[in-house]
Amino acid sequence: MMDLLKPPTDNLYKFQAVGGLALIVAGLIFPILFFLQTGMEYLAQLRGSDEFKVHETFTKERLKTLKDREQQAVREKNELEQRLNQLISSSRVSGNSGEIEKLESRIKETNGQIESIGDASHEASLNLELKRAQVKNAETVSVNQRRDSRYLLGVAVVVIGIGLYYLLIGFRRWGKRLQRFQDIVVEKEAKDALKAETEASNEVPSAIKATPGEVAEPTR
Q1: pTM (whole model) above 0.85
Q2: Which pLDDT score, from 0 to 100, does residue 216 have?
Q3: Gap between the Cα atoms of 39 and 54, Å rounded
Q4: CA angle 153–158–160, rounded 5-degree value
Q5: What average pLDDT does range 59-80 have in this prediction?
Q6: Is the pLDDT of residue 58 over 80?
Q7: Of 57, 50, 35, 42, which is closest to residue 139 (Cα–Cα)?
Q8: Does the structure show a pLDDT above 50 at 180?
Q9: How many CB atoms lie within 10 A of CB 171?
Q10: In angstroms, rounded to a whole number, what is the distance separating the alpha carbons of residues 49 and 143?
Q11: How far is CA 81 from CA 97, 103, 216, in A?
Q12: Looking at the predicted structure, is the pLDDT value of residue 219 above 50?
């Protein structure tokens, strides 16, 4: 029963050494992969920031253009309304009914243009703010990942140190407590096998030289 509970020291030392080697490999590979991913995302974040600057400049110019068009449409509307009020207030309303309808139609068109310009300005402003929020979020994520990469580097150094410790201890115990004695046993078995082979080769010539009816004495 005690033999069943006794751990196999040979496999235990090998497992300790291999486990230490696995920790070293993990401490080297995972930080490298994380650094590569962080670097690629950082480059993507920089590219996104540059694209946002171009988009912001274009949007501001477009908003300025829309603002000028809106002011022009408002001035045109005011002029049309003044002309309409003058025609309505004049004494010859019946004779100017056709022109009044044209002015009212143009005023409606101008109001539609003003509303369209306002909607376009509002949409451009929303898109700009949305883009700004996305870029800011990407920048925050990039900063956090670069900070985490520094922490991961410290953890990797600790993991590699632990793995190196277990690797050296495992191989040292394996070689000192087991492998040395196994080498002695193997060497002794090899010597015994060589001695037996030598004795067997010496017995063969003695048997051949023995005359019929005689029994060859074994060589001692």
Answers
A1: no
A2: 47
A3: 23
A4: 90
A5: 91
A6: yes
A7: 42
A8: yes
A9: 18
A10: 14
A11: 15, 8, 144
A12: no
Q: Are 77 and 110 in contact (CB under 8 A)?
A: yes
Tokens of 129: 């703010």
Q: What is the pLDDT of residues 33-44, one digit of tens each?
A: 888 888 888 888
Distances (CA, A) of 215 to 197, 203, 206: 22, 12, 9
Domains and CATH numbers, the chain: 16-201 (1.10.287)
Assess contact for 218 and 206: CB atoms under 8 A.
Answer: yes
3-state SS of the chain?
CHHHHCCCHHHHHHHHHHHHHHHHHHHHHHHHHHHHHHHHHHHHHHHHHHHHHHHHHHHHHHHHHHHHHHHHHHHHHHHHHHHHHHHHHCCCCHHHHHHHHHHHHHHHHHHHHHHHHHHHHHHHHHHHHHHHHHHHHHHHHHHHHHHHHHHHHHHHHHHHHHHHHHHHHHHHHHHHHHHHHHHHHHHHHHHHHHHHHHHHHHHHHHHHHCCCCCCCCCCC
Which residues have a Cβ under 8 Å from the Cβ of 9 and sit 6 or more positions away?
Answer: 177, 178
Q: Which of 164, 133, 122, 117 is nearest to 48 (CA)?
A: 133
